[in-house]
Amino acid sequence: MSAAGFDNREAVDVVVIGTGAGGAPLIAELAQAGRSVVALEAGPSFEPKRFTPDEPTASEIYWLHERLSGGETPQAFGGNNSGTGVGGSLLHYGAFMPRMDPRDFTLHSETGKGVDWPFGADELMPWIARVEAEIGVSGPTPYPWGVPRTYAYAPPTRNAPAQIMARGCETLGITCKDAPAAVITAERDQPEFGVRHACVNCGACHQGCRNDAKSGVHNTYLPVARAHGADIRPGCMATGIVLDGRGRVEAVIYVEGGVEKRQACRALVLAAGAVETARLLLHTGLANSSDQVGRNYMTHVSTQVWGTFDEETRPNHGYPSALITEDMMRPADADFVGGYLMQSLGMMPATWGSLVARARGLWGPGLTRYLRHYNHVAGLGINGECLPRPENRVTLSAERDAMGLPKPRIDHSYGPNEIAMHNHATRVMTRIWEAAGARDIWAADRAAHMIGTCRMGTDASTSVVDPHGRSHDIDNLWICDHSIFPSAAAANPALTIMALSLRTAQAIQQS
Fold this sequence. Notes:
The protein has a single domain (14-51, 61-66, 76-510), classed as FAD/NAD(P)-binding domain. It has eleven helices and 21 strands. It has helices spanning 24-32, 55-58, 107-111, 121-135, 160-172, 221-227, 273-284, 349-360, 364-371, 416-435, 494-510, and strands at residues 14-17, 37-40, 68-70, 177-178, 188-190, 194-196, 231-233, 236-243, 249-256, 259-264, 268-270, 298-301, 304-308, 323-325, 340-345, 377-384, 393-400, 406-411, 439-444, 447-451, 477-479. The chain has a six-stranded antiparallel beta sheet, with helices on both faces. The protein has a five-stranded parallel beta sheet with strand order 7-2-1-11-21, with helices on one face. The longest helix has 20 residues, at 416-435.
């Protein structure tokens, strides 16, 4: 029997695998509605006081289980895009919180490329606004792009990279503003959690927030879920799904403390992310009549440009991504479809040093000489649309992990559209840095985030789940994470994932 009183042998209403952006809002909604909910989280439960800006120590909140990376543009995992623990990747995400551009829902209709979502921006907007209100998001009012909106909190103080970006953009006539951020800048009494304190501009967002200024789900939705009886179980790795004689889910197999256990349930929600959700389905052979599970893996084109400045920048200080421009969402001179957001970048020293070594190919004395300029550098970065391609996919490798499961292999290659976007962004960001007075400017070709692999759609032959996240094949199996995105869009995915989570919770209650 669990601490919350649920007996594994007695079927609970819902088991949710994953407690991050996809799982947590849904867990809270269902628990508040009186459903019995068990949430399985592979990682541990962390106390905020444990978080530290020390980068090697902070890696404990990253998903470091080995993944095999292939393709022409192999992607780095771990701290780049994957978290572990109660709260998921939101423990270490950067809290950059732009809304998805309405045009990105209908990219195929607009351009003939990519895939349209099965609904438009109007359908998701109320859920997006609700998430912003419930977790606490800061930003400028008015916001110059898209639908008019009001943010509850004033933006964090601009750090040096943001001030330099503003200077360069103003010279070139590019509009930029303080970025929407899931960071509170005034004390907040969070329901069922308590007091969250204002951002102190420490700069360690990616290492976990000690004073809970960063809005995750561990300090917003999950306390509500617990208060209403949800049983959240850390250290529980799901390894199997059991079907009954009618082909419906009747239980989940998981490992806790080296012991295999079974939790009976009346419905199952997968919210483990684009890689782990696909891996579990491929391992069990379920929900894949369309042969789409694992396919259309996408990232964001996340090119960065760095430069050295005469003034001191101390890029580890302040909220890292304090400035944004959406002027490149549909640039007039684009030789690609879709668009990209741009943000200012600060970075912690070890993370930056690793980026320098990889992107500039520096080593030994050449690397150490350049790293001495750390307190005078600043960066710009983008998040850009990535088109779905079936050959970009998650598959099961022949290697086994500690649980005996096949390790996932992720093949990822840029196509012509992503390459053209990278080149365009590199030119634009270089011009901004030149206008701002940078020297020794260089670019890093990189990809971030994990998107796709269990596409939603109305056609069961070309998608894995319906527009609410319900499996076409198994009517009590749902998916609620960024694996169901039909396209990558340009915005960071966290806000959209949480909005979809609330929407899917409503659909489960109505089913």
